[in-house]
## 1
Amino acid sequence: MSKTRISPSILAADFSCLGRELARMEHAGADMIHFDVMDGVFVPNISFGIPVLASIRKATSLPFDIHLMIADPLRYADAFAKAGADMITFHLESDSDPRETIRAIHAAGSKAGLTIRPSTPVEALFPFLPELDFALIMSVEPGFGGQSFLADAPDRIRALRSMSPDLPINVDGGINRETAALCREAGADILVSGNYLFGAKDAAAAIDSLR
Ligand code: DX5
Ligand code: ZN
């Protein structure tokens, strides 16, 4: 039996009916919902933020997995937690102090995750692993959905897995049936997927194909 958990990224959802899109993923068997926050500073795109999370929190009982692609995650950790974030991931390359940010996320009652851009060596995560609830490997450059999976991501997952046998590892970007298999084999636990899941006619079959 597979323990792989699936986190649909609502960046690829139809925003004109977000509540229905969440219900569709929940009924299809999603384990959590991935919520990509972009500030137009840390990444060259702007998505959605705290009021949207607070509003859709009521639409599903699934945990919310928040991916902060923002310059100053420390400043906003508490507000995202209060709006309903169960898990908060931020970037090591942001301006916030990583240890202080992890502590702030925990103090706000959420699980803390750390991630890195594809160009940052995976070893940069290692000093923080004991304080984290999970780590996220980006398999595309953060900022946009619908990009192609970067071929070196499985090796980065393997390197992280060898350092930390039990830490949940998330992977985000370009996940489909084929790339999901590479990530599972490398040791990933949680697969984030946007376009592949929301673009599928049969979301339940698409989710199953990633496990
Ligand atoms: C990219 C985001 C991803 C994105 C994944 O910056 O972090 O979560 O939504 O989308 P797909 O699965 O379409 O690559
Ligand atoms: Zn993401």
## 2
Amino acid sequence: MEFPIRSLRIINRLLRKPFGFSAYRCVSNTAVKEEATSELLTSFNQDIKSGGAVPVFRRALLFPSRVALQDDFGTYTYAALYEAATALSKDIAAQLSGETEYTISYMCSNDASHIVVQWAIWMTGNIAVPLTPLHPAEMLKYYITDSGSKLIICLQDYEKILRPVSEELAKPLLVVYRPKDGTDDQGKGGQGIDGQGIDSQSNDDELKEILRRMKLGKDDQMKDFSISDVGPSNIWYGGTEAMLIYTSGTTSKPKGVVWTHRMLSTQISSLHAAWQYCAQDVVLHTLPLHHIHGQLNSLNASLAAGARIRMLPSFVSHSVWARLLGTGEREDARVSVWHGVPAMYARLAADYDKMFADKKTRDYVRATLSARMRLMCAGSAALPESLFKKWEEISGMRLLERYGMSECGMALSNPYRPVEGRTLGCVGLPLPGVSARLAAATDNGLDPLVTVESPDPDTQISVDRLGLTSNKESYEGTWKTSVAEHKLSKDGVFEGELLLKGPAVFSRYWNRAPQLESPDFTDDEWFRTGDTASFSDNKFKILGRTSIDIIKTGGYKVSALQVESAILEHPSVADAAVLGIDDDNYGEIIATVVVLKEKASLTLKELKDDAGKRLAPYQLPKTMLIVDQMPRNAMGKLDKKVIKQQFGDKLVMKKK
Ligand code: AMP
């Protein structure tokens, strides 16, 4: 069944209903505006106290004239994105006859279109399921079917991918367009179009007018808009679902993690408190948006703070270097925060060695980064120690490593302050709203070893803390953890499976058994992460996925992540993965696949001699395979399933 856009518009006009326009209204007169903002804030905070959640798009009403986003096509205020989303939400509502709580799959580029579509879905009270063009058609079909999506939305650029999928699955497809804006885009969208935002039909006068108004003038003068509140009440959002984030499915089929608006708000408050987000931040966004790292840390937590996002279509090392150094950028658009995965930092560091050869340039790079960057975070995979040190040398900044998952957003983090508290190889303590526990597997189930609690974050919105007023209030003291209980430990080190609990942690997968029957949760409702971790000296350390990274060899348990980190210290090694290979004598033996730096050579003996300075003999690899390229997924994580499939046989042969 196909719903051409023209008929959608007609359906829209026939069915258009007013949906929840409320008393909130942002107006341009300054005095009236301040009063209205303060009233709005008070009502938001009352709603939160009564169990509601303020969806991210609605926070835009607090700072409509601030710049929300700069992408490769233009610069947009919060009001502009909000207006475009409002227009699109009418099409969506019409398509679904005003029904709410349906899942809607959507595919956009990393630009304003993603925010507009996501907000429009939320404005209609439906659930956003972000898709990526990086996935093949079969996977897209799986996500659309598993999520039971009622509608598919895509940017014009991806119609070729999604039209056949929508026809096969008999799902309506809504295509959104970038405006032509007087230039001939030849129907391609993307590069070279001087247009902003999206248009659900490029010839439509109503939307053209919105897009014209979205566009900032050459002098980038802020425009004030009169925008009205759209969508159900905050109380309603407090009890409903916002989005599904599919897990990467390394061990089983990807599962849709249900993110409620409340969980999203809790995570946002937690990150705001722990990492001190503020409206003055300029956040560089280079992460995929079908993953929680890009959705939460870089996108939604930034938008909820009234910050400015500089979004790139994807991670390209040279463009990221240019943005980090602020090349050709206006003062107020210079990047101050970046969230990256270790593979991105590794690539930047490798290009740094090639691009910035002389001391003067290196001094400039270091001085610029340390003066401009407020925060540089790393996570989603282990940050090797050599990279942590190298980045500090390059930038003068200590990376803040954190641990997170699709199921719990961000869970553990090194401290924001003091900077010296950010410890090599560790992921710190539970973030506000998360309790973390290590448990040992016994014949009778899981035996708790140590539990560390962090109180719930303050979910009230504070414009003072966000730096939106002249009374900048500090977040200091808003994040405190305590060890709730622990077993006795001889050397003060606990090691076991990492369990998580709290309002910032999810409670169910979409389309799967309810929580208490699920093997993903313990009987007392702790989420089993599937990661093994240790706790000592008041810090957690991630040892890896229990199923694949904990190698059982000759009676020892070895963390593949620790061995990888040690191997990466070798000057000839550019990339490394460590695997366990089945062995009759040892159970498993440690094997490594490495990529060498240009013109470098390496023997297993040389590697062992070097890594032996940092590892015990039983932790050293027994076989090594040198390859040209390491399989990594869209998030830059080592794809161990593929690595094993591609190289496992060769490693077994080398062993003999
Ligand atoms: P995903 O749900 O795709 O974000 O993957 C979550 C998994 O990434 C976790 O279960 C960990 O195995 C891994 N991970 C995330 N952050 C870290 C980190 N800082 N160190 C080591 N592994 C990490």
